[in-house]
């Protein structure tokens, strides 16, 4: 029951329905009729047909089969016994099956319903998942009969059941009346009315509730009365066998019509002679003629005759519409006898020289009561001027008067004709116009009647008992309606430059009164509406609108009107414009030119031409092929009717001539640009190619894949010679091994190289042979296979793999491919083992672990060697049977072999894999695979092939596209290659693709700033590449800045630098800076945000640079104070000065106290330094350098404290440590001293003394100290404990320097003895007798004075004192008196000195430890004389050893007046021993690093 009727039952009362049915069935009961589609889908299909019908099916040569005489005789013998009564038996059997099936289904449904109704309902139900109580059953039915699938479903809550066909939901609304879905009492059913063969499929019911879902499946098979399936079609495009003909005649075709040539307006006859057995006058042969696979029917344009030993087709009024492939099919006892050939029809001589040919294939679409859409195909043009337009003519049927429909030529091959009279029949024709004139008129179209399709669509059909139908009008369902509703879905179905076609759906409800339509238009956006069909009473939901103003967008709306009034307005259309923004027609016009054209030899008068399709087809109708003789420069059309496919056999060429060919694509807008010319080719027969090569060669290698006792599955290998075109079919014959008669296995061709042969007898041996077919026909059969026994395979291991093929053959490797076994054994296949054998050697496995995929890359081959392979499948039970050996493979790459290239299209940004084949044939194809699985209809990739180059283009590449991609070029000697796409490579290509699709100006450096020396701020960026046509803008705080005196903007094409220099950077310049760059299609921008702290930093730097510029106008520091340490460890404070002169003053300060150097600084040298020798902690402080003259002044400060002080000490430590000597042993009276000499030492240098790796701290026992030239550690009163290994570590900031000494063994013994000796000597030195003060060096005295020489002596024990004069001991007298008091004070007094008392006096002080000898020079002068100048010289005090003797005493001089001695510095009673190490001059090493002063404070 139709869907609308179901809706009617829900709205109307039952009694109303019964009354309506009784009134309707009185006059509308009739046989089952075809269903009508909804109005919306109808007019959409009609519009689509107008374009799609332009592209007719390609003309292909159908394949045919012929039986040998032996086969024919055997077939006649078998069928003669069963032919009689076959039709009557089939009809009766069909009737019985339908009746029985219907009764069984009705009984089953009633029983189930009764059982469910008698069940006692439970008070409470338990929630359960769905469950099929009665599952679906499979059905096999005859064509044009209904079938009902039903099932019973349980579960709570009540499940919802949905129906699917082949995995797709069944939609009853998609084909009204086709499907009916019912659900009553838990029984769910799907009824399919009037089954056709295409309804053969797997149907499933899916029941679902909140607890789960469950599925039940069943198969429906629809058979024709003769038992053939619709799917069993001949390969290629052979006309479809629509009937089974019970012909009993044997027909053999003799003389056959060949390729023919006719002229428009002429006539032609195609005929075949034949032998008919038996030749019965009252049983003529049944012949059918086809043009381009369409059955021809006799009429005034087609005359068909059969009889008298011939079948003929006469075309009395030729037109270019008659061009095409003609096929004669004769029905015979064995099937059919067929023959095909092409008929070419050229243009007649034009009435005006240079006028175009007549248009072709004029047809009418979208037929309404006052409107049709006329479409046609453009003629081919070679010498003529381009077509400027077309005129459409019409005439009413029965009239001979033609009237022109359009006043001006229409440029596209479509035209809407309106103003027709409802119910009248019309014919249409078209004429083309160019600058030379008008063409001949085309052949008139078939008769069309102007009727309203909506009237037919308002009928509904209700099926009664599967035999009759009740037709209901929509008016009755709608009830009584006066005012119609508004039209719906108003849209522009055709948009061209010269017109548009408005389409809409009729209103619903419409009412019973006739309606018409009113149309208004408005310029989009204005809201002002204008009536455009005021003078036309429009009755169809179509209307063409002409002469719209170009460049404006319009909107349209429609009203419905009848005698009761006008409806509301429909919704307005969207804005409609006849031109796009470039002024081109919409949609964009003719196709792009076809690709590469390749011509190859065919016969002595024909050439096979093939080409690549255009990139932009734009609803392609077909192609025109033109030819030109080399040197003539004139082109002639090869075909006169558009040809759809990309290959064509050009006939009628002159043998021996050389031709070139070109191709044009055709669509509704006309002809494309011509393709490039093909390479020149001479018309000669194909080399080494005769009749036997037109069809394929013989297949070979037939092997058995599986057997179940009633069938055998076989496989075979392709023919080595494929003929002139691709193999499209295989046919299998069989015979008992003990018989000579072959039987056909498959009447319908198979395209695979495997076939399951059913209906065999177990235990019997069979032989098989296979034939291959292509467009030229069926080739020679293969050699019979070995006898194969039909015995069920029961082995638990898998059967053999098959179809082994070698790909990507190189000198050292190849990839072996195979297909999985048909027989899998007792468990699933888990892997495969590949075995290889080099020629002359045995097989050995290539993989120890079975591979799970069906390919293996074999490496380590010997170039030039021949190999064969076998494959064994593995399952849980073991290793299966080995496959048949592969074809021998030579490990050698084809000459010119190339690998797959991975790249990105520079124009589109598409990522692709490409292969350029080193060889290719006419029938070659590029077969792409991923992980060695062929890619078919994959939305992720597209394949483009041009000549020898094929590209696999990724649509939206991502990680799902990673893997191994391979390509095989068919019909070659093994051209193939592979490439593995990795994630890293993909990421790189994605980035490159994005850059190409979104071109940007590449930047080397983004927008940045730089503060220049005068306080100017430079904003700049750098492009990697910049053309001279590049433009750019600087935008600051959303305002564009132009170049001016204060903001200088410039760029450099060579370096790609774009910059803006701001002379005065102020606080107002805070914000966002942006540069926008355009260079051709590429663009880019970069921004820099200067706000907050970032701006403050830039501003402060600019202000500082500005003040620096001002500062540098006078004397200034080019480099501020920094320090460095020389090699002698002298610390230098260094600065560089600039812009100075001789008068420039320079002053040093420490802690604001000026430092005066012995040598004033020389500012003219450019560098000034302050040396600090013997650097130590006392040198810390705040140092300052001042520079001044009449131009200005400048100051640099440097603070030596904290980290700076530590860094200087570390640098000194580095030099000292590097120069440190090894530890030196020095004995002293106090103990043993270890000394380390270095360039400079101060206590601030970090040092560590270690004894036996234990750090030593300074103490009375172990005293650590140093001098400017060394560091030392003294062991006081050493003992045995102090023996061992000593070391010193001198540390700088990064490194330590270690020096060692081993104080043990003989070294310690010697040192200890020396220590004891020095200790004793020191003790003696300390206690010996000596003069400790009081004696002068020289005494000058006047005579008669008293001289008193007095001194203090010391010694323990008290010393003895002896005085001498001129080395003679002085004896105490009155004149020279000697005294010694308290063992401490000794004196020599000479009274009344005379010149004789002059001389050298000395005193000798000594005890048991030694003594000291001191000399004094005395000069006595007379009164009145000038005192002599004393001879200066140090007093000599000579220690006297214990064994020395005192000089001989001299006579004591006469006492004289005591003189005044000169002053002498006193000495300490106990002098400190001096270091035995001689003094050394102090030197400082060079500094380890320099330290610059901080930047002066910036204002």
Q: What would you note in describing this structure?
A:
The protein is mainly β. The chain contains eleven helices and 102 strands. The strands form 25 sheets. Strands 93, 95, 96, 99, 100 and 101 form a six-stranded mixed β-sheet that branches. The longest helix has 33 residues, at 86-118. The chain is elongated and about 200 Å long. It starts with a helix and ends in a 7-residue tail after the last strand.
Question: Could you list some keywords that capture this structure?
Answer:
five-stranded mixed sheet, disordered N terminus, six-stranded mixed sheet, 1499 residues, elongated, disordered C terminus, mainly beta, 102 strands, single chain
Biggest sheet record: 6 strands, mixed
Which range does the strand content fall in? 35-45%
Q: What best-fitting shape do the alpha-carbon axes yield?
A: elongated
The helix content, as a percent range, equals 10-25%
The rounded Rg comes to 61 Å
**What's the quaternary structure here?**
single chain
Low-confidence stretches: 1-47, 49-67, 119-124, 226-246, 687-693, 1440-1499
Number of helices: 11
Topology diagram in text:
Blueprint lengths: L2 H9 L2 H15 E2 L8 H14 L16 H11 L6 H33 L9 E7 L4 E4 L4 E10 L3 E6 L2 E2 L9 E6 L2 E6 L8 E9 L2 E12 L26 E4 L6 E4 L4 E10 L8 E6 L2 E2 L7 E5 L2 E6 L8 E9 L2 E12 L13 E6 L5 E7 L9 E10 L6 E2 L9 E5 L6 E10 L2 E2 L9 E2 L3 H5 L1 E6 L3 E6 H5 L9 E8 L3 E7 L10 E8 L6 E2 L10 E5 L7 E9 L2 E2 L30 E7 L2 E6 L10 E8 L6 E2 L9 E4 L7 E10 L2 E2 L9 E2 L17 E8 L4 E6 L11 E8 L6 E2 L9 E4 L7 E10 L2 E2 L9 E2 L12 E6 L5 E7 L9 E10 L5 E2 L9 E5 L6 E10 L2 E5 L6 E2 L10 E4 L6 E6 L9 E5 L2 E2 L6 E6 L2 E6 L8 E7 L6 E6 L1 H15 L5 E9 L5 E7 L7 E6 L2 E3 ...
Parallel strand pairs: 3-10, 12-19, 93-100
Antiparallel strand pairs: 1-29, 2-4, 4-8, 5-6, 5-9, 7-8, 9-10, 11-13, 13-17, 14-15, 14-18, 16-17, 18-19, 20-21, 21-24, 22-23, 22-25, 25-26, 25-27, 28-29, 30-31, 31-34, 32-33, 32-35, 35-36, 37-38, 38-41, 39-40, 39-42, 42-43, 42-44, 45-46, 46-49, 47-48, 47-50, 50-51, 50-52, 53-54, 54-57, 55-56, ...
